[in-house]
Amino acid sequence: MESVSPVSRTRSLGTARRGQGRGERKRGAAGIVRAKAALPARPGNLVHLGRANRHGSNVQGTRRTRLQAAKSHREKLRERTLRESSFFCGGGSGAGGIGSSPRKRGGVVAQAKPDFGDRIIACVPYLLPLLDGLRYGKFFFMEFPQAYVLLAPLQPLIKAYYTLPFASLVVFFGLYYGIVQNYNFSRFIRFQAMQTILLDILLIVPSLLENFLLRDVPKSGAYLQFLITSYNFVFLYVAVCFLYGVAASLAGEQARLPGVADAADRQVM
Q: Are residue 73 and residue 156 in the same domain, yes or no?
C-alpha cells in the first residue's frame, strides 16, 4: 500500500474546496438571474407610483393649508364678534368696560354693568346742556308755568351758573379735561360726558342764527310764531335728552343721543 504524503493530501483538499466554492457561486448567480427574470420588472409602474405618491402628498398639503386658513378665518371672525359685542354693550376700561372680563349668558357675550358710583357720576354731565338750554324754554314756561316747579331742586345751581362769570366755560372745560381726557374714569363715564359736551356745542347754533342772521327781522307776526316754535323745539329736545341720558345712566346702560352719539364714539377711545 502506497503512502500519501501530508503535503499531497493538503493540496488535493484545497483544490476540492475551491472547485466546490466556484460551483456554489455559479449556482447562486444563476438563481439570482432566474429570480430577476421571474419578477415583473416594470419601471413605468414605479414612475407612476412615485407620481401618485407625490400627488397624494400635494393633495394632503393643500387640504392641510385650507384647513389652517379656515381655522384662522374663524378665529378672526370670533375676535371681531367679541369686539363688536363689547362696543355695542358699552363700557370702558373700568366696570362694565371693554377691559372687564366678559360673561357668557346663553352663548352670548354679556358685559358687566358699571357700578352704582359710575352711574351717578355719568348723570352729572347732563346738567351742562340742561342749564344752557333753559334760556330756550322761556316761551314754554310762559305757556306752562307748572312745569317750572320741576326745576325747583336745581334752583341754587341755576342761580350760581347764571350769576358767576365764566361759569359755563369753567364747567365746559372742566368736563372735557377732567372727565373725557381723564382715563382714570371708565369709558362709560367719559362717553356720557363727551355726548353732553357735543350737545352743548349744538346749542350754540340756534343762538348764532338768531343773533347774526335774524337780528334785523322784526319779532312779530309769523316770525314771532316761528321763533316760539323753534325755542320750544330746542328746549324740549334738550329736556328729552337730559331725561333719557340720566335714566339710561342710572340703569347702567349707555345712552346714545341722536345727532351726537356717533361723533362721541369717534372722540372717546
A: no
Residue 248 lies in a domain: yes
CB burial readout 137-171, b (16+ within 10 A) else e: bebbeeeeeeeeeeeeeeeeeeeebeeeeeeeeeb
Q: Enter the C-alpha cell of residue 119.
A: 352711574
| CA atoms within a 13 Å half-sphere pointing along the CA-CB vector of 134 | 18
Q: What angle do CA 231, 147, 240 make, to 5 degrees?
A: 55
Are residues 136 and 142 in contact, defined by beta-carbon separation less than 8 angstroms? no
The grid cell for 13 is 483538499
Whole-structure pTM value: 0.57
- Do 207 and 118 fall into the same domain? yes
Each residue's pLDDT tens digit, 207-243: 888 777 666 666 777 878 888 898 999 999 999 999 9
Please give the residue range of the domain that contains residue 122: 114-267
